[in-house]
From TrEMBL:
It comes from the Eukaryota. Its EC number is 4.1.1.39. Transmembrane segments: none annotated. It is found in: Plastid, Chloroplast. Keywords: Calvin cycle, Carbon dioxide fixation, Chloroplast, Lyase, Monooxygenase, Oxidoreductase, Photorespiration, Photosynthesis, Plastid. The keyword Transport does not apply. This is Ribulose bisphosphate carboxylase large chain. GO terms for cellular component: chloroplast. The keyword Oxidoreductase applies. Gene3D superfamilies: RuBisCO large subunit, N-terminal domain. It comes from Rhodomyrtus tomentosa.
């Protein structure tokens, strides 16, 4: 995931949905990999490969972990900032957005703990 979903040079757009996750990676998992995994698992990382993949651009829909910072005073905890393109979600559906962002990602095995801190 790191090579595709960790994009520290990404500049957020006014149309992006921005999320801040508090992440505690499993031992041996670097924060960049953990942040990339959150971005992937909450956007396009769980999509099944089908023939229509040739019709859909991953770069258009994928979440991007664009910044990571350590949590002051907490060992092995980080705030991972993830930008999601608005086009990833069904227009006008808060349920669809929350299902994607806070759905199955909370059971991801690369993480010991995960909490959504902010969403804008």
């Amino acid at each position: 995931y790191k090579l595709t979903y960790y994009t520290p040079d990404y500049e957020t757009k006014d149309t992006d949905i921005l999320a801040a996750f508090r992440v505690t990676p499993q031992p041996g998992v670097p924060p960049e990999e953990a942040g990339a995994a959150v971005a992937a698992e909450s956007s396009t990382g769980t999509w099944t490969t089908v023939w229509t993949d040739g019709l859909t651009s991953l770069d258009r829909y994928k979440g991007r972990c664009y910044h990571i910072e350590p949590v002051a005073g907490e060992e092995n905890q980080y705030i991972c900032y993830v930008a999601y393109p608005l086009d990833l979600f069904e227009e006008g559906s808060v349920t669809n957005m929350f299902t994607s962002i806070v759905g199955n990602v909370f059971g991801f095995k690369a993480l010991r703990a995960l909490r959504l801190e902010d969403l804008r």
